[in-house]
Amino acid sequence: MRRGRVGAAPQSVASLVCEVIVQHALLLEALVKLRVAINEPAPSAPPVSPGSRAEALKQYPAGALLRVRDICGDRKAGKPGLLPIVSRTWLKWVEQRKVPEGILLGTRTRVWPIEQVLAVRGGLPEGR
């Protein structure tokens, strides 16, 4: 017979095997649930239409300062941006100096005047 925890009564081999089987079954059940959750398609945000981009433009006054999420939108929240691109593309364009660097407000906050963003928007091809 095998000893258990200090102060606990010794357990038989049969009861130990039963414990292991129960724990194994619980683990398998958790893995099956996890596999089902992974294979299920994630809920997607509604597609952003070009008309909603025009609506997004109306909410900003002249001289407004825009963050990346205002420029590119937030796909998870379904909020359209002014440009039909993802934030990584915008940041890559900044690195490549295709668009202005913007204004650094703090150590991690960079903004762009709306006029600069609209100038970039005017230079995009129609299909984008």
Task: Give a written overview of the molecule.
By secondary structure, the chain is mostly helical. It folds into two domains: 40 residues, no CATH class; 74 residues, no CATH class. It is built from five helices and five strands, in the order H-H-E-H-E-E-H-E-E-H. A three-stranded antiparallel beta sheet has the order 1-5-4. A two-stranded antiparallel sheet has the order 2-3. Strand 2 and strand 3 form a beta hairpin. The radius of gyration is 28 Å and the shape is elongated. The mean pLDDT is 78.
Précis, in short:
The protein has 5 helices and 5 strands; from the N terminus they run ααβαββαββα.
Instruction: Point out poorly predicted stretches.
Output: none
User: Roughly how much helix do the residues carry, as a percent range?
Assistant: 40-55%
- The secondary structure category is mainly alpha
Q: What general form does the structure show? A: elongated
Largest sheet: spatial strand order: 1-5-4
Mean pLDDT: 78
Number of helices: 5
Query: Can you tell me the number of structural domains?
Result: 2
Largest sheet, in brief, is: 3 strands, antiparallel
Tell me what portion of residues adopts beta-strand conformation: 5-15%
The protein's oligomeric status is single chain
Give the ordered list of helices and strands: HHEHEEHEEH
What Rg, in angstroms, do the CA atoms define? 28 Å
Q: How far do the termini sit from each other?
A: 73 Å
Count of extended strands: 5
Please write out the topology.
Blueprint: H1 13-39, H2 50-58, E1 65-66, H3 68-72, E2 73-74, E3 79-80, H4 87-95, E4 103-104, E5 110-113, H5 114-123
Antiparallel strand pairs: 1-5, 2-3, 4-5
